[in-house]
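Ligand: FE2/S2 (inorganic) cluster. Inputs:
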Amino acid sequence: MHIPIKVDYGVRALLDLAEHAQEPAVRSADISLRQHIPQSFLDRLLLTLAKDGLVRSVRGPLGGHALARDPAQVTLGMVMRSLGGNETIVGCLEAPESCNHLAGCGQREIWSEVEDAVQRILDGTSIADLLVRTKAARALVVSAAN
Amino acid sequence: MHIPIKVDYGVRALLDLAEHAQEPAVRSADISLRQHIPQSFLDRLLLTLAKDGLVRSVRGPLGGHALARDPAQVTLGMVMRSLGGNETIVGCLEAPESCNHLAGCGQREIWSEVEDAVQRILDGTSIADLLVRTKAARALVVSAAN
DNA sequence: CTTGTAGTTGACCAACTTGGTCAACAATAC
DNA sequence: GTATTGTTGACCAAGTTGGTCAACTACAAG
Ligand code: FES
Ligand code: FES
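Predicted complex:
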């Protein structure tokens, strides 16, 4: 049970784009610097996100990346599905015959219950939600420093 | 987001032990045959489960494995923690300084929310629960065959 | 039309995890 | 002492993760 760092990176990148939504395009180099994500790696992630329609990228000078939709319409679930690889919760998801020997494996429903619970949380949290959370967290840090 | 097959194997093994609780010890070879788990692999899993106090194993002829506790007291969460490796949901669990740069990463709480939800489901399901579920599933299969 | 900028693509990489095997070893019942 | 059964360590192939690099392509400005 593990959240790949790619997903966290991706979310941070989208959050960065949401914060700079007034700019027509944000360069990956800037995101990389601000979010402390290795740039070449970040580029791949942005590419994947673009292919999945979460960001719009434009090349050349003045180029960069921008959110393709309203931050409230982009959920963590989408990011996970985009970047998290197409792994399934357990090997026998769509290959039920491999585990379903003789009398059926009683665990299957539990594993998918788990999957559903995770998806519910992830699909219930948008980039917009996360942005206000992040700002609140930052405010806390600042006030603690005083 | 993935449930390693080890865990499923382990649960199936424990389920098998629970079903044969009247026998003083069940040989891993029998479990292997009944549950279709490669024996050498199963042996390792049983060893781990034994080290974590979930089964009791005895060597020699008449030896084998048995549940170390009441099936109702053994949860899927325990099996997961025992066999699932000590992976954490995201790298920066107990290394918050690595991600907590400048102002804190707002996602951290979401990831642990997810982790908690999973743990709640897993800790809320015991081998005993699963045994009745499995029997019900088997009854369904049998009735469907008639 | 050249030049610089910035995203895209493919090849490649080390480290780690997963699922699994095998042979040798240790305990124990008969 | 012998057969049986769990224990332990070494080893393995395949896949995933996190990451790099060089080449390529699109485009804006001059
Ligand atoms: S073997 Fe497929 S879920 Fe149990
Ligand atoms: S970087 Fe650690 S949770 Fe975001």
